[in-house]
Write a structure and sequence with these properties.
Layout: H1 6-14, H2 24-31, E1 35-40, H3 43-46, E2 58-63, H4 70-73, E3 80-84, H5 89-102, E4 107-112, H6 117-125, E5 130-133, H7 138-164, H8 173-176, H9 179-198, H10 202-214, E6 219-226, E7 232-236, H11 241-255, E8 293-300, E9 303-311, H12 319-349, H13 360-377, E10 381-388, H14 391-398, H15 400-417, E11 423-428, E12 431-437, H16 441-457, E13 460-462, E14 465-467, E15 471-478, H17 486-502, E16 508-510, H18 516-527
Parallel strand pairs: 1-2, 1-3, 3-4, 4-5, 15-16
Antiparallel strand pairs: 6-7, 6-9, 8-9, 10-12, 10-15, 11-12, 13-14
């Protein structure tokens, strides 16, 4: 049974970063460069200048929400929809569901106010491709549209390839005698490609891939390598570390990413995807792909990768099995691209647009995780709350542009002072917060004083001249008998910050845990 693999090779070339004007893939990209965008938004957003900067290749058709009907206005020729959601999240979900129902595999980009990473992830899981926090730049919009069109073309190609598998050259008699197993295999392949396209997390992709491949191939090993990462995701049921090391080395060498001596191994997807230790993976000789293995190229825009499957036993793959695995590889590449886009969206929703550090929502998530570790294992950690003193005067006297510059510079000073493992966020207004994992009170006090001095000595250059400011810092550490929740830890740091302000500002105050005996005396006094 033979299947023409030309479409698979063309697909890989289409998304290859090395496509040039002489390639057929380049011509195909040019032929689809004219994009129709259905923009559904309030009049103020429709009039924004950003839509005029998208370029001549994009035709924007504007609708107000009350005039837009998904069933009527989304035709087969419609390429992409940008839809503004309102303040009510339940209404946003309903609107998205109507658009998804009107046409499957449509690229839908939502825009609106800041809704947090959890809600944005939920919308992505229900059919949206991307979420843009408004206002946003023309560069951000164009980048989202470009990735969306690539996603749309890829998912259509995956669907076409899986549907094309039954259309083959005349089958041998022994194949026609057993049509039911082949039909089940096609059904399993289609289900796997659909599930991969819908996966939005790394663990889900790994589990879906392994579960689906087991129904298609009698395999003993699966490996995935990406060109921008010095790692291999490896699943194996052989428990042969030396053999797994050779597979890892082979994939990294194929991508030109074999790590140098001393490179730290990266983490696996989960327990069922084990990463081979570096101690057994030093290159000694050039390996070649064995006949019972098949490696497919993963074309993912500017990145490439390899997807390798090793068959159980010594029997080589048939041509049909290799073509089947190429189709799975195309779906896997799409899923990994979608995962990267989802992570970028999450990162955007968790960062403060002014300072580019974590916003309040993102920081609180990190603080909650660190507190769980401290409470469970007794590991020390510290929290700093920092206020820029008299910041309101900067805004009132020099304007908000000068105030924004001071905030950005202060964020840069904080990031430059703390370690890479420390977490920095803007908690609101002129308040910054820092988490210092595995750090005790004494060490954090030294760092906080250093940070206070750097801010005091730094000349904040603004258009009107230089601004000098100081910082008040509150410090709270765990473990602490009085800290059992996120609110307790944040409250302790806030109390220390208020004491720093009460002492005249420009100082560091450490929250002192109340001894258990004192706490009992205080409780008895209140009871009396």
């Amino acid at each position: 049974m033979a299947i023409d693999v030309k479409t698979i090779h063309n697909l890989a070339r289409l998304f290859s970063p090395r496509a040039s004007k002489g390639d057929a893939s380049y011509s195909r990209l040019e032929s689809t460069s004219s994009t129709t965008v259905a923009l559904v938004a309030a009049p103020m957003i429709l009039r924004a200048a950003v839509w005029k900067k998208l370029g001549p290749s994009m035709t924007v058709q504007a609708y107000e929400p009350k005039d837009f009907s998904p069933d009527r206005d989304i035709s087969n020729g419609r390429t992409l929809v940008i839809y503004q959601i309102g303040a009510r999240f339940v209404d946003a979900r309903r609107s998205l569901a109507r658009i998804v129902q009107a046409r499957q595999h449509l690229c839908i980009i939502l825009l609106g106010g800041s809704i947090g990473s959890d809600r944005a992830a939920r919308l992505l899981g229900e059919g949206a491709f991307d979420y843009l926090t408004w206002p946003c730049s023309a560069t951000r919009v164009t980048e989202s549209i470009t990735r969306g069109l690539t996603y749309q073309r890829t998912i259509h190609e995956v669907k076409r390839l899986s549907e094309a598998l039954p259309v083959v050259t005349p089958e041998p008699a022994h194949d026609r005698a057993a049509p039911q197993p082949y039909s089940r295999q096609l059904s399993a392949l289609h289900r796997l490609t659909e599930e991969l396209a819908a996966s939005l997390d790394e663990d889900g992709i790994g589990k879906t891939l392994i579960r689906g491949l087991r129904t298609l191939i009698d395999m003993e090993m699966v490996g995935i390598a990406r060109s921008n990462l010095k790692q291999v995701w490896l699943w194996s049921d052989t428990n042969n570390l030396e053999h797994e090391a050779r597979v890892r080395r082979y994939l990294l060498r194929r991508l030109g990413r074999l790590p140098a001596e001393g490179t730290r191994p990266s983490t696996p997807l989960r327990r069922h995807l084990r990463l081979v230790p570096r101690s057994v993976s030093q290159p000694k000789e050039q390996e070649e792909e064995p006949t019972n293995s098949h490696a497919s190229t993963l074309a993912m825009g500017e990145e490439t990768g390899l997807f390798l499957v090793r068959k159980r036993g010594l029997e080589p793959f048939t041509q049909q099995e290799r073509q089947l695995l190429d189709t799975v590889g195309t779906a896997l590449a799409l899923s990994l691209q979608n995962l990267d886009a989802h992570r970028r969206t999450q990162d955007i929703t968790m960062r403060d647009p002014l300072t580019e550090i974590l916003n309040r929502h993102g920081f609180e998530g990190a603080l909650t995780r660190e507190l769980k570790v401290a409470l469970r294992y007794g590991v020390p950690a510290c929290l700093l709350l920092l206020d820029l003193d008299h910041f309101k005067t900067v805004n009132e006297c020099l304007g908000h542009a000068a105030g924004d510059h001071v905030l950005r510079t202060a964020a840069e000073l904080i990031r430059a002072t703390v370690r890479d493992i420390d977490v920095v966020g803007r908690y609101g207004g002129n308040t910054f917060a820092v988490i210092l994992p595995h750090t005790d009170r004494g060490q954090t006090r030294v760092l906080a004083e250093r940070l206070r001095e750097r801010i005091e000595q730094h000349p904040f250059a603004v258009e009107a001249g230089q601004v000098r400011t100081t910082a008040s810092i509150g410090l709270a550490a765990v473990p602490d008998m009085a800290v059992a929740s996120f609110a307790d830890w944040m409250g302790a740091a806030d109390s220390a910050l208020n004491h720093a302000k009460a002492q005249g500002r420009n100082c560091v105050v450490l929250h002192t845990p109340q001894p258990p005996a004192s706490a009992c005396v205080a409780s008895l006094s209140l009871a009396a």
